[in-house]
Structures are given as structure tokens and as C-alpha cells.
């Protein structure tokens, strides 16, 4: 991708970062001659309309926010199979980089950064946008002091506070309790994430820890965030209260939006300044100034003008003083002329040296050579190309790459485009292919939590929703790789490859006793399509009504049914006809047993029950050998009655 011209306008220079959906590159806008950051969706996601729509949503969400604390979006488009997003380029670091370098921050530093974050977030909330993925990685600290929020890839309308479905839900360490338990997000979910960031900035660590993401998510859902001062005693009580307010487990007990929290932060800042003045304000306290020196007299002023010695009082004696000063000025003049000649010689020497140096480094042996782009070539081809330009080559470098196959060159150090003198060393970075990560246990997690785990190293496929009467709706049944094969926990799986979740859709709808028309409508509401109507006998369902959905295969094995499948219906033909057994001539004891076992109801003289061995059956209706619906009534007559 490096060196490519996007849409005939954006020249890609180098890679800045890589995420779950896209890679961010530094590029030059050739039309406006400025540096920009261009975010390009991963190729394997381009065919997924859901991801493409989410990518476009980021552009629209961020473009609606014209605020100094929000990263500006300039352009969005499609170049071949690459969807891209053009943003302002901010050279600098992220808040995550700052925390890794310094651990905890001071109260003043924390307030300054959070004030900028809340200002940008307040603009988003006012525009009806919830960020939903606030974390230190998405807070940019520019070299010129600007602080901005980026990555609105998960942004949604603030009124869309319903279950998130297949949407990504941000990093587990910053998920609010309602996102973990119900998959619901609104402006107060962003406030929770800000509170967690404040805790981390003040203490140097996150409030909840665990070996598995599920353990961290459980703590967010069931435990209260502790006060920062329990980890760092230097944190003032006012900031303790602000963090606890922002991270309340009940959303109703948090600030309603970023503006409400920003107002309180400013009040807290003012109260801290009043209670504990900073060094800057302390320096402005009233100071006792020294007494002013007396103004110089006329004679003193003349002394300073005439060369530094007191002037003689009599006018006749001023000549020697003037003569002495004149001589002094002459000496100084001669020194200046001498220095002038020396400066001229120095300038001539430097000019000659500059000319020689210009030739040496411009056209001579010392001329700088641009490192070429040898990406995707073999190490042998890259070595030959670099040596031809006069470079020394170190072929031992390696790097992981999702775009370049293992064994081919994925980059160089220095990067292509760098200017080096001949003889300097260029290190080849040979691709090791995709970096492998161990797959965590996803089965049994809530869908939203599993999606967040996937986003750490991989990409999401469109979730498959499968009906299961034993597993609650929204719980993960299985995880599949890019070929649809199950991924076992602990399996090594490549960076940025897709993982598709199989999620429980709950039990199948109950259709027993409904008409075929009603059953078809209910199936449509559940995301299923009615197929064939298969006739079956049923003792419980009247003829013509639906018995239920066919849930077994022809071999009797259970059938997997998923949303968007077509299913067949079992429709009742009424009770199954049964052949009437021949019991004429049998005692009532034997006849009753045979007729009951065949599933018939019996009509007979109840006196026979008193003497079952004495009564003999003389006739039955229907007669033996005929068929009658199972459950129908057989009339029995006895000999002698």
C-alpha cells in the first residue's frame, strides 16, 4: 500500500497504525499539498456490507462534529476495492503512549486532558452522537499541544439506546455495566468510560483486572469502581468524588452527558486552585520591592559620556580628556578593521568548503540516495536492488504482516523514501506472515463481550443466529474460523482473520394448534421461512392445524435451525387409524386389555368389570379387522346379554 496513489489524489507515505477494521497511513493530499491521515478498510472486509456501512458511518459521524477537540474528517470514498476515510494528520502520541511512559499523571495534568476530552465529547452528545469506544488509544495528544478524540467507528445516534446486535462494543476495560449485561449504550455509557480513564490517569492502573475478559466484564457489572485515592493517596477528595460519580453502576446516578460532567470538572478545578494554589498563582503574590536608586546628576551623566572617568571641573582642562578618548576610539577603529579582514578570510574559506561539500554530497561520492520500495519482493531481489544503489544490506530483520506472505519482504528500516549516504545499512524486514494469537474461550459469553474479545486481534464475521431451547438468547454457542470450522479455545489463529460467532436465538416459536396461515406469519417474525407442509397423524392436534416445526433429519438426527432458514411444518391429519383387534369369544378380561392397548375407548355393560373372567365377548362395533381412528369408541356386547 505504501507508495500507492489513492483515488488519483492521496499519495500513501507510511503506515501509522492498524486496527480491527482498517489500517491508518500517512499520506500527502496532492491537490491541497498537505499531509493527511488516510484510513483504509481491510480488503477482506470490503465485501461485507455491514462493515462497509459501519466504515461510512464513522465518516458521517465525525464529519458532523466541527470542534477543536475532535479529529476533523476531510473526505471519504472508494478506490477500487478499498474504502477509505481521510482525516487530519496529528503528529504526536496517544494518551495510552503517555500512560505507558509516565504511569500515573498529576491531578492538574489529568484535569487538563479530561477537560479537552469532555469538550469534544460534549459536542458529540449535543449532536446526538454516542462514541461508544472511548479509551486512551482514541485520545490523541498532538505535538503542538492539541488534544483530540478520534475513531468514531462505533458511533451511533444517542437515541438508539437499544440492544446493539452485531455492533462492536469497545474495549472491555472501559465498558459500562449496562453494555456488559444488556448491550445498551447512551451518553452515560461514554461518561463511564471517561471515569475509568480518569481513574487510570490518576493511579496508573485500571480499576478491574483479570486473566480472562469475562472476569473483567463481570467486575464492571457487579462491583463498584474504588476511589482513586485508595491506589494513590495524593489524589484529592474532589477528584475521588468526580470519578465515583462518573462510574456509578446505575446510569441514572451518573452525569446525564459530557456537558454536565464538564461543568462539574471546571467547578472542581476552580475549587482545587482556591484550596491549593499552584506555583504559577503563588508567584503572583504581593512582593516588597527594593527602594529606587537616586537619579544620576548632571556631572555623573557627563562622566558616563566622556569615557568612564570624572570630568575635570575647569573648562580649560577638558582637552586632555577629549584627546584620550579620541585615541581610544582610533584604537577601537583599527581593531574593527583588523577583524573585518579576518571575517572576509573566514567567509571565503567557508564558501569554498560549502562548494566542495555541496559537490560531495550533491553529485559526488557522498550524495544521498533514496531508499527504494522493495516491498513484496524476495529477499534476494531486494538485496540486489539495494546493493546496486550502494547500500549495505542486513537481511536478518523480521516483522509480522497481514498483507505480505511469509518469506517475502514486508518493509525496510529505514522506510522507503528515506535519504541515506552510500555505504549505509538498510535492514530488510522479512514477513513472518500473520501474527498468531491464542483464541480465548468464547462459548458461553454474552455476544457483546465476545465481540470485544474478538476485536483485540481479529475481525468479526456477521453473527449467525441459531435457535436453541437450552441456551438463553444472546449467548455464544460456537465460534467459527474463516472457513466455517469451529475454533477451539486455545487454538492459534492469525491476526485480523475473521471469527464468526454462532449466537443463540432462543427457542423456536411454538406453533402447535395454529392454522397454517398464522404459523407462516409467526415464522416470518422470527426470521424463518415456511417450506413444505408435511402431513402427520396427531392425537392431540385437530386435523388441518399445525403440529409444529420439523426439527429432525430423515435419519432422525437433530436438525440445526438458524435465522433465515427455510423450515417445513408438520400439519395434523388427525388421529392415526388403527385396526380393530379380533376379541370375539374372549373373556372380558382379555378383550379389555387388547382393545385398550390398541388405543380405543370402550362402551360396555359395567357389570362385566365385576366378573371379567365370566363374561365372554359376543360382538364388537366396529367389527374385528376394520379400522377406526385411534382414541375412537368401540361398543362391546357380551354373550347372554
Write the layout of secondary structure elements.
Blueprint: E1 5-6, E2 10-18, E3 22-29, E4 34-41, H1 49-63, E5 73-79, E6 82-88, E7 92-94, H2 95-102, H3 107-126, E8 129-130, E9 139-142, E10 147-149, E11 156-157, H4 177-182, H5 187-203, H6 213-222, H7 237-246, H8 258-275, H9 279-282, H10 298-305, H11 318-362, E12 369-370, H12 379-388, E13 392-399, E14 409-413, E15 419-420, E16 425-431, E17 436-438, H13 447-455, E18 459-460, E19 464-466, E20 476-480, E21 492-494, E22 498-504, H14 516-525, E23 529-536, E24 546-549, E25 566-572, E26 577-579, H15 588-597, E27 601-603, E28 617-621, E29 627-629, E30 633-638
Parallel strand pairs: 13-16, 18-22, 19-22, 23-25, 27-30
Antiparallel strand pairs: 1-2, 2-3, 3-4, 4-6, 5-6, 7-9, 8-11, 9-10, 12-15, 14-16, 17-21, 20-22, 24-25, 26-29, 28-30
Catalytic activity: L-seryl-[protein] + ATP = O-phospho-L-seryl-[protein] + ADP + H(+); L-threonyl-[protein] + ATP = O-phospho-L-threonyl-[protein] + ADP + H(+)
Protein name: non-specific serine/threonine protein kinase
Pfam families: PASTA, Pkinase
